[in-house]
Amino acid sequence: MIYPHLEKEEYYWNQGLQRIAGLDEAGRGPLAGPVVAGAVIVLPDLIESLQTAPEYKLIRDSKTVSSKQRELAYDFITRHFEWGMGWCDHLTVDRINILQASFLSMKKALSDLKRKSRKDIDVILVDGRSPLPNISIRQENIIAGDRHIFSISAASIIAKVTRDRMMTDWHEKFPDYGFAKHKGYGTKFHFEMIAKYGPSEAHRRSFRLVRKGSV
């Protein structure tokens, strides 16, 4: 099991920069639903007192923990850390493309974080290789940051849990597609239901909604 570390955060803390925000998104690949971003600040004077809590070790790449563990980690993060969330719906994804919608969701998450804390952010640590465009905050991109950087892992939990809850809501409206189970990803069952019923209101029309090899 790979657990994230605080080396990046400590690097900036040692420069006198306290407010380091990890940033990640969930939902770039699915055929339906929103793309959601999380932003989390881990403050140096708080982190040591929390490291013995059992929920602390659940804060890692959201893909490596169960849905129940993610919910526990989400509750822990939202109780103890500064956090923000932003999202773009499937219509925005279709209008501006998934990459730009991911960027916009991240900017919304940062705005939400800043609004709640009423303080500026010193540095953002962004998961992946693509810099967040048109933003004045100092930033660093980290490939596989959600696996290795604690604040990014925490942001991935916020994004994933929020998006899963949204897809459960879509399931209530369109139960035939199985959104509560696959969360909009392109499973065999999901493609079969699209073929049977056609796209729902929640589907991204700019994505390929026919399984490869199908006529």
Walk me through the structure.
This protein is of the alpha/beta class and 215 residues long. The chain has one domain: Nucleotidyltransferase, domain 5, CATH 3.30.420.10. Helices cover 45% and strands 14% of the residues. Strands 3-2-1-4-5 form a five-stranded mixed sheet. β1 and β2 form a beta hairpin. The longest helix has 24 residues. The model has no long low-confidence stretch (mean pLDDT 96).
Which secondary structure elements does this structure contain, and how are they paired or packed?
Elements: H1 7-13, E1 20-26, E2 35-41, H2 44-50, H3 67-80, E3 82-88, H4 90-96, H5 98-117, E4 123-127, E5 138-142, H6 145-148, H7 150-173, H8 179-182, H9 188-197
Parallel strand pairs: 1-4, 4-5
Antiparallel strand pairs: 1-2, 2-3
Largest sheet: 5 strands, mixed
Topology, number of strands: 5
**What spatial form do the alpha-carbon principal axes imply?**
globular
Question: What strand order characterises the main sheet?
Answer: 3-2-1-4-5
N-to-C series of helices and strands: HEEHHEHHEEHHHH
**Could you say how many structural domains there are in total?**
1
**Helical coverage, percent range:** 40-55%
Distance between the termini: 41 Å
CA gyration radius, whole angstroms: 18 Å
CATH architecture: 2-Layer Sandwich
Q: How many H/I helices?
A: 9
Stated plainly, the CATH topology is called Nucleotidyltransferase, domain 5
Strand content: 5-15%
Q: Which structural class is indicated by helix and strand composition?
A: alpha/beta
Provide the CATH superfamily.
Ribonuclease H-like superfamily/Ribonuclease H
Mean pLDDT figure: 96
In the predicted model, the low-confidence regions spanning at least 5 consecutive residues are: none
